[in-house]
Protein: eEF1A lysine and N-terminal methyltransferase
Organism: Neovison vison
Amino acid sequence: MNLLPKSSREFGSAEYWEKFFQQRGKRAFEWYGSYLELCGVLHKYMKPREKVLVIGCGNSELSEQLYDVGYLDIVNIDISEVVIKQMKERNASRRPQMSFLKMDMTQMEFPDASFQVVLDKGTLDAVLTDEEENTLHQVDRMLAEVGRVLQVGGRYLCISLAQAHILKKAVGHFSREGWMVRVHQVASSQDRVLEAEPRFSLPVFAFIMTKFRPVPGSALQIFELCAQEQGKPVRLESAERL
């Protein structure tokens, strides 16, 4: 069964995702790695008691696995009604505190400063498929909403392939807002002893964008890079250097 879109633009279409999850069924689909591959960086930047919003959750098992190790305050949203129905049915009895809502992440229905973490696994990459005006406008709305629903001190934790145009857009947007920008390499599946069969060969990164309280007139920008998953962050002087 071919689930790939006819063009990359379809990744931003609700109709494509409805069809995708109808054809895919209830089998989990993991973009950019499993919980075991990502837990090192996730646990570094998320605390179990924090309120977490997962945008573009799909039918990934990531939220379920986070819940099972103690992250109980998780809200998941997706534009696909099909997948939200599937996920509600899958988790109603086993994970009663976790919620799944059909919602457009560019027009979220939450009050300001509702969450301490916004978690995005592959969603920004799926939306930012090119640099056309309509695409960039949609991404601007998405990132503005992420900023709105996060508390000061909160983090936008985005798992990405960090292609040049995505890195440029994400770093540019949040640095202009005065947030701290960190790019963190995630150990690949080839590095995991537990993974008998690598499933994703491209390098994966995490963007950790930390929301600072805006300071009028301040031009402070902070850029950091962790070239190894457990390495110390290195401060860089510019977005271009990052």
The longest strand covers residues 150-160. The chain has one domain: 30-187+199-241.
